[in-house]
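Good morning C.,

I know you're traveling, so I'll keep this short. The sequence:
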Amino acid sequence: MARAAIVHAVGDKELDLRDDVTTVDPGPAEVRVKIRATGVCHSDLSVMTGVLPMSTPTVVGHEGAGEVLEVGDHVTSVQPGDHVVVNWTPDCGICAECLRGEPYLCMAFIGDAFGNPRFRIGGDTPAFGMAGVGTWAEEVVLPHQAVIKVDADVPFEYAALLGCGIPTGVGAAINTAKVKPGSTVAVVGAGGVGLAVIQGARIAGASTILAIDPNEAKHPIAKQFGATHTATLDNLDETKGLLTGGGFDYTFEVVGKAAAITTAWQTTRRGGDVIVVGAGAADDNFEMNAFSLLFEGKSLKASLYGGSYLKRDIPRFVDLWRAGKLDIENLISRRIQFEELNDAVRALTKGEVIRQVVLFD
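The tokens, ready to paste straight into the viewer:
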């Protein structure tokens, strides 16, 4: 029996914190992982509220890292004792998307995530894992493609963020937008992923990086991570004019709202790129008239998982961290225990924190 945080139905305000949850046994191509650290992300809240659909009951959590306990007979990529990052979008390696070099679009395991319960509550009740993983649990059983080995000197709480926040944000700047040195960048939303986008733009060599957030308490934090300027929605037009004249080369939407995409579009220069990073609701429609779409010459791009290929990108991110170019430590607002998860959800809902990390003993 192990601890796990359960949502029984969409709209639940409180997590059911259990100590009687078990995993399924690993199959020949699967691994059992002891989760040592897991992040508390806005996408987790979106599962609780129903913005991101998921089968229930669900073990929440998708951003995690841990230690391999057991491997199936066919697994050769990792072995017991290895430290690993959980990849919530595992790639099969043989589908059209994978062969095109877009593993983050692989759908091979999606059906399994929604239709195959990975846990049992109290020994009898089946439960699913969020995004097919469910890292707010002490143990998970995953396809071997869903774990990426990481060097043992990387702290587990850092490795957890390498599973979502950092590849989603830094990857959006480096992989999706391919920000050019000397360019101008704006980021709508200065939460955890937005700060990772800012770091990615800084690493890529952007000369001007504007962080846009209505919460002015986030502005000095954004500058700590590389923003050169900050703005609220009220002074955005004035700031845009002062910094660029006509708009930014790249603008990233990291909120998950149609209104924020509109803000990003209006902040971008003619011919610039608008990159959508936030996970929004299916009924939140973004509208653009056909004239503007063509004659403003802007590109609207989606950045799922930061366009990241974790087998390639996690070693890159680790190298950047070791070189002092990627700040992971200061992305972590607080380290908490499992029993504090409901408080962590409330703090994130109120916008009081950047990233909280649950540490399992």
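Safe travels,
E.
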